[in-house]
Design brief:
Helix content is 29%, strand content 25%. With 115 residues, the chain is α+β, with helices and mostly antiparallel strands.
Length: 115
Amino acid sequence: MLSEDTLKIRRLNDQFRAGDPKVPGEIVITAALNELIDCDARSTSNLIKTVRDYTSFTKDNDPNSEHDFGSFEFKGETCFWKIDVYDHALKWAAPDPSDPKLSKRVLTIMLASDY
């Protein structure tokens, strides 16, 4: 059985990925993946939609059940996305990742080779 904090973190991660403005955070795309996208707004939109719609969580890619990592194919390349949770200044780990008042999420989307 999952703890209440784990369920809160999972819900916040899912809401953030879905674009909920009530969950603070930002999205970062690595330089190598940006080159693959070639600054194309439609490709960027498709990439973000892929991450937002992601549901392929397993024990292997989500061992803590927090929905904070995923892998997918994009333009023939394996890509990863990862959510890290920081304080609002983005300087330290969040004191409580289950509390959006004390945390800010950063979703990094990258080529697997960037990892």
